[in-house]
Amino acid sequence: MPVFFSLSARILVNLEALNMAESVGNVVRHRRAPVVLRTDNGFVLRYVPVISGESLAHHYQKLLADIAIQRGLPVCSACSQGVFLKHANDDVFKKYDGIDGAKNKFKTGTDAEEYVVKNCVVEDVGGFLYTDKTVKRTSRFRVGYMVPALDALEAGAAATEAQFHVRYSPGAKQEEQAIYYVEIGSAVYVFSFALDASGVGARSMENEGASSRNEYILSLEDRLKRVEAAFDALAALLGGMAWGAKTSRFQPHWKILSLVASVSQPLPFNVSPGHDKNYARETVERACAMTSVVKGFKASIVYYNGEGLMEPEGCNNVSVEKVGSYLEAIRRAKEETLELLRGKS
C-alpha cells in the first residue's frame, strides 16, 4: 500500500543571506517574491524575502549523496560531485558513465530508467528527465520556497536590509577601496517538504514497457535503505542548518520553533503549512475529515511544539503524538514509514 510523508516547520532565521538573486552595481540582493496577505482592508501584495525550492533541493540532494556514499549505496559520478545535471541526455551518459550512444544502447525508456535508478540513489529519489529517450522520472521528494509565515508578516516581522561593507587596504587610494552592500533577511520562515516513500525504487509507469514488468526496480531491502537515507538527509538539512549561500560570512542565527509531520496511507496528505500557530490542529482536523471521505485513509501525525501551538487531538485512524524535539519528530516519522513499507503496521 502506498506510503507518503509530509512535513512543515516554522523556523526563526535572523541575519541571513541564504539565497541571493543578483548583483546590481555593488549591491548583492536577497531573493524576494510576491506574497498575498489578508488585512483588515482586504488583500494586499507584499514583496518579501524568500529562499527558493531550487536552493533547498540542491542542498538536500547533496546531503543525500553524501549519506548514500558513506553507507555504500550507489551514487553516480556527477551527483557524487554535487553536479545535479542528472542523466538528461546522451552527453551526460558519455561524460560521466563512459556510455557512447546511450540512446541506441537502451531498447526502451524503461531500460534506461532501470539503469539510472539502480546506479544512483539521488536520481531515484530526486528524479530525472532523459530527453534523448523521453524518460521522465518525477521526483519522489517535493520542496517549495521558504516564505515568511503569514502571522509574522501581519506583525511586520520580516524584512531585508542592505548592510554596508568595505575591503580596506592601508595606503591604498580611495578608489582602490572596495565598498559593497549585501542584503540580509530576517523572518519566521515556513519550510515544507514531502516524500513519496513508496515511490523510491519503484518504476515510473509512464515509461515505455513498464506495465509489463515488476512494479519495483529494487528489492524491498534496498528500497528501505534508500528511504532511510532520504529521511536522514532531511534531518541533516534541518538539524545541521546545512544549506544556503554565503554562509562563510553570513552564518544565520536560527531556531526551529515548531514542526508537524505526517505519514499517510493510501493517498498523499500534505500537512498544513505553518503560517500560524493553529497549523498542527488544522492538520489533524483535515486528516480526520479525510477519514470520513476517503475509505481506508489513515495517518500518523507527530509534532514538536516549541512555541505554544494550539494542541491537536486525534480521531479514529488518525493518531497524534507530541515529542520533545523536531529531530525526534523526524525520527518517529521515519520509523513509522519504514514499518509501513515492511508491511508490519
UniProtKB/TrEMBL annotation:
InterPro entries per UniProt: Cas7/Cst2/DevR_sub_I-a/Apern, CRISPR-assoc_Cas7/Cst2/DevR, CRISPR-Cas7/Cst2/DevR
Keyword tags: Antiviral defense
Protein's GO biological process: defense response to virus
Domain of life: Archaea
One Pfam family of this chain: DevR
Role description: CRISPR (clustered regularly interspaced short palindromic repeat) is an adaptive immune system that provides protection against mobile genetic elements (viruses, transposable elements and conjugative plasmids). CRISPR clusters contain spacers, sequences complementary to antecedent mobile elements, and target invading nucleic acids. CRISPR clusters are transcribed and processed into CRISPR RNA (crRNA).
Record's protein name: Conserved uncharacterized archaeal protein
Organism in which the protein naturally occurs: Hyperthermus butylicus (strain DSM 5456 / JCM 9403 / PLM1-5)
The organism's taxonomic lineage, starting at the top: Archaea, Thermoproteota, Thermoprotei, Desulfurococcales, Pyrodictiaceae
